[in-house]
Amino acid sequence: MTRSTAPPRLGIRANLAQFSLLVTINALVGGVLGQERTVLPLLAGQTFHLTGYTFLLTYVLAFGVTKAATNYFAGTWSDRFGRKPVLLAGWLVAIPIPVLLIWAPTWEWVVAANVLLGVNQGLTWSTTVIMKIDLAGPARRGLAMGLNEAAGYLAVALTAVATGYLAARYGLRPAPFLLGASYVALGIGLSGLTVRETRGHARLEAGRHAARSDGRHDHLHAGLTSREVFANTSLREPALSAASQAGMVNNLNDGLAWGLFPILFATAGLSISRIGILAAVYPAVWGAGQLVTGMLSDRLGRKHFITAGMLIQAAALALVALAGTFFVWLPAAILLGAGTAMVYPTLLAVVGDVAHPAWRARAVGVYRLWRDGGFAVGAVLAGIIADLWGLRAAVWVVAALTAVSGIIVAVRMYETHPETRRVQR
């Protein structure tokens, strides 16, 4: 007997069970990333005795390059093979990561683990983004992305705190990475047994898709080739290209925070527990803030949220460069998290607003290719500058780049949310 299935419906409420499940799965994805946040920079110095910031940041570079490339393929493969197989493949790739980190005899093993981590994050996080956009429909994309990114980055923050505690109590290895192993096991089970395919929701939205009244998107029809999707998302289309460069600079910031902030804090004499708090506060504010900012961008619009968020990040980075104590770095981390929360889900919502449902998964992949390429750019740039002129000089340069990125968004991007456009007219 064949089991009948209900036809797909759009909306978060109409798909609440699957949407909530995908939020939970993305929290596990974030947890796998968070297991490294506090511990790995300390492991590099204390266990492997690395000198030179550029060499130390090879693990961020390896992660950034592979995650950026995998994001692109995740979008293409999601259209070709379906969302669920790509999600499950990403979890299977993660199985060796905790083992490699626990047993690594040399730094090259850590770099290899981060190559796998980049593939894991690119496949799983990209696919949960695509699936939530499929389910939510056009009206609440900002809220959908806020919930997705909040779950992921709150998990990063909580895991950073937990691994910092485990490292302080039991040592840098193996305890912190056993937590990551439990996340991988749960992710495989939930993705394989309970997640349902969402391509049908994208096809439903494509059948209802209406063109903009101002004709701005007339050239972005359903039949774009992958090459045309890449060109429009990267360069040609103003909103998509502005989002792509802002995403890259945003993750350049995160690569800096991930790779160099713990070292900067350690040079000031902070304890492992306080470094863990600072490493967690930034993604915690980032994660929790997206619960509000994604929803507000559905009401107030995307462009100004992104511009303000980039400028707030620049100010926070400048404060990090100026400060030298825990009690000044703490508000700087809060400010950096708040600015990132304004930007992160809103940029994804812009891609969802502009891209046609027929090629939206590919556009998300291209956007995330550029965005997560920021990890690699940040690792190289910050590492070289830190080696030549010091840690604080690297933070100052990234702060300036972030301010310039915000100005580019203000000049180049137009408002993309349909409700806001109607109010503005």
Automatic annotation (TrEMBL):
The Major facilitator superfamily (MFS) profile domain, residue ranges: 1-199, 239-425
Keywords, sorted A to Z: Cell membrane, Membrane, Transmembrane, Transmembrane helix, Transport
Transmembrane parts of this sequence: 12-33, 53-74, 86-104, 150-168, 175-195, 256-285, 305-327, 333-352, 373-389, 395-414
Protein origin, superkingdom: Bacteria
SUPFAM superfamilies xref list: MFS general substrate transporter
Coarse class of the protein's main subcellular location: membrane
Pfam families: MFS_1
Its membrane topology: Multi-pass membrane protein
Residue ranges of coiled coil: none
Transmembrane helix in keyword set: yes
Cellular compartment(s): Cell membrane
Cleavable signal peptide: none
PANTHER family attached to this UniProt entry: INTEGRAL MEMBRANE TRANSPORT PROTEIN, RESISTANCE PROTEIN MDTM, PUTATIVE-RELATED-RELATED
UniProt name for this protein: MFS transporter
